[in-house]
Amino acid sequence: MTSGSLRFEGRDIPVREGDTVASALFRAGVRTFSRSLKSRRRRGLYCGTGECPNCMVTVDDVPGVRSCVTPAGSGMRVERGRGWPSTEHDLLHVTDLMHPLMPVGFYMKTFVRPRFAWPVAERVIRRATGSGPLPERREPTRTTSRHLHADTIVVGAGTSGLSAALEAAGAGEHVVMCDAYPVGSQVPPGRLLEAIRALETRARAEPAIEMLERHAALGLYDGPTVALASADELVQVHPRRVVLATGAIEMHEAFPGNDLPGVWLGRAASLMAAKHGSPVGKRVVAVASTEEGLEHLRALAGSGTNVIAAVVPAALVDEVPASAEAIADGELVSAHGPGRIRSVMVRERGQARRLRCDALVLSIGLEPRDELARMAPDEPVEIVGDAALGGAVPRVTGGTLCLCEDVSAHDAEQAWAEGFRSAEILKRYTTATMGPCRGAMCGRALAAFASARSGQADRAAAARTTARPPSRPVALETLAASVHEVIEKRTSLHQTHLAAGAELGWSGGWKRPFSYGNWREEYTAVRERAGLMDVGTLGKFLIAGRDATILADRIFPGRVADLAPGRSRYVLALDEAGYVADDGVLSAFEDGSHLLTSTSGGAEGMDARLREWTHRLGLHVHLLDRTSELGAILVAGPRARDLLHPLSDDPLDGDSLPYAGHGEVTVAGVTCTAIRTGFVGELGFELHHPRSRGPELWSALMRAGRAFDARPFGLDALELLRLEKGHLYMGQDALPDDTPVKLGLDRAVDMTKEWFVGKAALERLATTPLGRRLTGLTFDEGPEDAAVLRGMPVSAGGEIVGRVTSAAASPALGRSIGFAWIRTVDGELPADGLRAGEARATIAPTPFYDPGGERLRG
Amino acid sequence: MAELSTSQPVVTAVLASSEACARVSALPGACPVSPVEVAIVGDASITALRQAVQRLDPDAVVRDVSDGWVAHMLEGPGAREAFARLSELELPASGFVQGAVARIGVRVLVDGDRVELLVPSMLAAHLRARIEDECRELLP
After folding, report:
1. Residues 6-35 (B) with a CB less than 8 A from some CB of A
2. To 5 degrees, how large is the angle CA B32–CA B33–CA B38?
3. What is the pLDDT of residues A443-500, one digit of tens each?
4. At A786, which CATH number?
5. Residue of A nearest to B86 (CA)
6. Residues A11, A87 share a domain
7. In this complex, is the C-beta atom of A544 within 8 Å of any C-beta atom belonging to chain B?
8. Of B15, B63, B103, the CB nearest to A487
9. A690 chain-B contacts, CB cut-off 8 A
């Protein structure tokens, strides 16, 4: 029967067909599978169905693996996680004896004084807890993510789940069925398993049922959506109906000694004896108060396990196998060690009685696995089978309440005495129910404790704490499977820029050239000759329909109604609080439509703003987002017109196409809307063209530009060009609560207009002190590269009064310049004495460069 | 398995009153993007269409917006499975749906095992890379 061996802490352990890691280790004599989180108490196999934390080991460097549900494989490397020097001999077990030093909440109570000691204590505590070290340098694995649509999802493939799935499929529904484990693998041989196998055969033959085994349901969300995780995929199921057939687990009770190795829940003992052929002990005491418990008792007896005594309700005494002594209506009091179970105390007709044993098997009630149902109470969920049971109320008389977090009944008592008097705050204070079992084992015990203490023992069910996803532990890499945060937008010139050796970087969701090698040369080309820039990233919107002008007039605070066809104008966009949200250029056309360009990063917000106000104002407007459809190239510099001239037969002179005007111009055979704008402060033509013609237009412009040594320029050169010209970068110079007047942009606001978005707020704000203002600064005695001043505080007389938002050394002006917001006093900026670091700062009017705008109008 | 191919479709945008859009939505290749916007994929006589639409809404906009869009076609028995890796949208047997595909707003035309994803040109390369990455075992 041996089918290989696994490697366990330096020795080879034989593996049999059908073994789990736990059954192989148990057969080889391992009894202590882990150490408890805080007190380092020995922990042995307990639930056997993948719920409790006791059997967690490290398999092939992955810690926290539940060995009782992990099939054993040949060549596996298995280690126990906690314990120093080893799990078998753990010196830190002394912490169990020092329990008074480590009360509940000891992080808050112990080691916090003296203060300097905490960093040391924290390091020690961190090393001493956890499930074992995380693997270092592990190969990254990839999980896939997919969505699944179905009429019905059935969670849990037991008899109830399989029956529900067959019924739904019979009614013509498409059914997704999932289970955390292979069908039937958690059930010991017997009548139940036979029933499951019969249903399974029918379900597998049914094409309308999609069976997802080894897919654990992590959570139930709005929609409804059910998230499932397997070893290699994350599945989000979107059903119309959810059927929960998650069954029930055997109840965990808190009594003295309940966590000793050798204390088993019935299913675990039965699986170990009947399926894996390893008796759980030589002298076994069973406590069975459920039907299922008697099945387990028979299975144990049938597999030759020596059950010396069975504690059962009087009515079931006759069902106890003859080999065992039946103790009618006995009460389990406590289990005793040391190290593993050696005896139990049972009260029989008022008399306490000690039974020597080496295993205690408990089947004392059922706890429905109902956490999914409790996650989304408003979703269309049906609960079938054992999951719908009311569930028994566990006793809490001592011992360990929460196995995962190592919270004892004593800890709960102490927390109660300190005033934490409901299940929810007991949970937060003691961390009970917050471990890997997610409260499946101990949630009811905690609720029972809290309701009993508050004198409302009958309301234990209502005292359950909130269930939250994930209902089972899941690797972060699985949850991250569907996440790809970065979305990369590209203009049609992307490959062209790459071929030209451009350094691309992120800007507003786009990959854009920052420079083509030497941004200073690019800057000089624009100021002295001509430069080309890809500005296809600008947001571009067609606003048409008979109310187009009304919409523009209402959305933008400036004067719009008088914008003549063929003219363009700088516009601000405010929100209703009067804060500047974006800016752009609005161009009017003969047919009453407008082309609006917005900042590259603000396009989506602008689209939403246009649509929202069209709707809110009830206007007849047609909106078309042309951002993707149109490319745009800025040709700027004193020779820009000379550069375009050979490529176009259309008039480009200052009368035909003046500054702040626009017109249709054919350049190198490409029909463009040319807008005369001046973000860089030179004669400029923004050529908006069909995206597909971008590369040929760019090439033609580059060829024509050779005569003037024209250069393509990127964002680095633009940063300086626009700063010299005193133009703001909305994302960089403006703050989220900047009004136009704070930014010095009040010229773009016409308060005499009847209404515009944000007007009421601006009127109110006009009566309050300004607070701060963005202003131009020149710097003296500062660093050579003034760019380092960006972000620096501005001080006056030792007091901080503002912050530099942009700064650079200007070749055109021969000095360092920048923007800063400065606190105002009675609406006035401080007159002098400003410093930014070592630099002396002087308030200066903007634009710094060409203040009269002669070059711009060119 | 599924084949992935990329093409440049002809797309006509119709922006008009909801009444006019409802009429246009019956045309082959029509994507009713909103009650007041329909995109028509495939060759369309713009002049005739504009005349027809403007009879119902005189200042309706009908224009060729092909440059704004790129089509990625997933085709073959694994096409729907590949799509499910990228989006939670439920695909009809045939017809039009729109929504997030790899977190991008995409218009989807479905015909059996042919799933055509219309993506804004500026995001076409990104979506293609996402498809190739998420569906790598499903593509040849």
Report:
1. 8, 13, 15-17
2. 55
3. 999 999 999 998 887 777 678 898 999 998 888 888 887 777 789 999 999 999 999 9
4. 2.40.30.110
5. A146
6. yes
7. yes
8. B103
9. 67
Last residue of a domain, one of A720, A752, A784: A752
3-state secondary structure of A9: coil
Separation in Å, CA of A686 to nearest CA in chain B: 19
With CA atoms as reference, the chain B residue closest to A547 would be B59
Domain final position from A721, A752, A783 = A752
Do the Cβ atoms of A144 and B65 come within 8 Å?
A: no
Residues 6+ apart with CB under 8 A from A29: none
Q: Are A405 and A430 in contact (CB under 8 A)?
A: yes
Kindly state whether residues A726 and A610 are assigned to the same domain: no
Q: What is the pTM of this model?
A: 0.86
Of the pLDDT bands very low, low, confident and very high (cuts 50, 70, 90), residue A786 is confident
- Can you tell me whether residue A687 is helix, strand or coil? strand
If asked whether residues A715 and A748 sit together in one domain, one would say no
DSSP lists the bridge partners of residue A223 as none
Domain that holds residue A845: 769-857
CATH of the domain at A554: 3.30.70.1400
Please indicate if any CB of chain B lies within 8 Å of the CB of A732: no
Q: Across the interface, do A490 and B87 touch by the CB < 8 Å criterion?
A: no
* Contact across the interface for A484 and B102, Cβ inside 8 Å: yes
pLDDT at A391: 77
Contacts of A236 in chain B (CB under 8 A): 88
User: What's the rounded Cα separation, in Å, for the pair A461 and A429?
Assistant: 21
List the single best residue of B59, B103, B110 to mutate versus A (max A Cβ within 10 A): B59
CA distance B68 to chain A (A): 3
Q: Rounded to the nearest 5°, which phi and psi values hold at A557? A: -75, -15
Residues 6+ apart with CB under 8 A from A674: A652, A657, A662, A663, A664, A665, A667, A685, A686, A687, A688
Please write the tens of the pLDDT for every residue from A417-445.
Answer: 999 999 999 999 999 999 999 999 999 99
**The predicted structure's pLDDT at residue A2:** 61
Q: How far apart are the first and last CA of chain A?
A: 93
Interatomic CA distance for residues A25 and A690, integer angstroms? 70
Give the distance from residue B94's alpha carbon to the nearest chain A alpha carbon, in angstroms: 16
Mean pLDDT for chain A overall = 91
- Give the pLDDT mean for A230-253: 94
Q: Does A94 have pLDDT greater than 80?
A: no
Contact across the interface for B61 and A545, Cβ inside 8 Å: yes
pLDDT-derived band of residue B44, with 50, 70 and 90 as boundaries? confident
Q: For residue A424, report the phi and psi dihedrals to the nearest 5 degrees.
A: -65, -45
The rounded distance, in Å, linking the Cα atoms of A291 and A297 is 10
Closest CA to A312 of A338, A292, A336, A339: A292
Domain assignment of residue A468, yes or no: no
Phi, psi (rounded to 5 degrees) for A721 = -60, -45
Q: Where are the domains of chain B?
A: 9-66, 69-138
**Best A489, A491, A534 residue to mutate vs chain B (most B CBs within 10 Å):** A489
Token pair listed for A631? 């490319």
CA distance A508 to A600: 6
* Architecture of the CATH domain B69-138: 2-Layer Sandwich (3.30)
For chain B, what is the radius of gyration of the CA atoms? 16
CB-based contact, A144 to chain B, within 8 Å: yes
Contacting residues of B for A149, CB less than 8 Å apart: 90
Residue A376 domain flag: no
CATH of B9-66, one of 3.30.70, 2.60.40, 3.30.379, 1.10.3470: 3.30.70
Identify the residue among A142, A143, A147, A504 best suited for mutation to test binding to B, counting B beta carbons within 10 A and taking the highest. Answer: A147
